[in-house]
Amino acid sequence: IYWRPDGTVTHWNDGAERLFGWSAGEALGRRLADLIAADPVSPAAVRAFDSPRAESRFAAASSEARTREGHALLCRWTYAVLRDDRGDAHEIAAIVDDTSDQRRRERTVHGRYQMLLQLVDNARSFIFVKDIAGRYVFANRAYAQAQPVEKHVVELIGRHDREALFPGIAEALEAKEREVMAGGRVMQFEEALQTVNGLLHYFTVKFPLHDERGQPIGLGGIVTEITSLRRAEAERAALQEEIIAAQQAALRELSTPLIPLADGVVAMPLVGTIDTGRAEQIMETLLSGISSQGAHTAILDITGVRAVDTHVADALTRTARAAQLLGTRVVLTGVRPEVAQTLVTLGVDLSGITTLSTLQSGIAHAMRHARR
Predict the structure, then answer these.
(1) Average pLDDT, stretch 37-51?
(2) What pTM value is reported for the model?
């Protein structure tokens, strides 16, 4: 049943009709007190209910009421006050139970308990409740089955973790639960626990439980194993690293191509920026190509190199010296006026290295020597 603070009924379902005898058409728009001869939630109780809607909290009240035929009932109202954006109460929503018949009340409570039990027992997550002393008062089937030695749920009730789990695990869990109780709020975190089945990962939600007066009475927990998820993520990360490494290797090969121009003549056009990693790749590719092709002349073309500084100059000269040790003549092409000035300013030793302004002139130079 829903009604406004002034008592006007705004929602009346089939259950309300069965309990009080009024149909929805007869009840909507009328004052609740006129229908059931009771005002179950007082204005003071409405003002006192100050729980945000998102928390889904309830309060409870009991009152006498009457049916359409005048029969007396004793009802329990489990209600929430719904507020608008300004915080003003605009409706009271209640679940109403007839508590006049004790046996019927017990059947209702038992039926709801069975529904709740089936709900949590069919959950794959571990769900449990502990009292303020850390003893289990409830656990679902999945949690009992996940114990080091599979148990019936009843074997957990009244016990501490120290009696069911390995000491190291129990101490870690209890320390975290003390933190939850001390903070008085919901905590979400991941745990990695070493078990007989190896290292298992869990996503855990733990929260303090309170009575109607707000006093702490225990702790609830919902724990979901995410080991397979974490392993899959690790495998994806490893695969991604392999793909990135392969891509980088492919890019390095593309960025340091070795082109055979003629018998005994190879050329390597360089483009972009030369860092430490690429400098090593240039030297490795060039020396490997010289060896495999028996090259007597190697052309290093730096026309596409963005800037020539000390680092680049050192990389080029080291590569040229290494090639010379293999008996290969090195020709450096693409030496623009500003590059020549930089090399002179840096005092780079280019003795034994032929330098030319363009790749075309370098190829022509190499071909002349090849014909001799």
Answers:
(1) 91
(2) 0.53
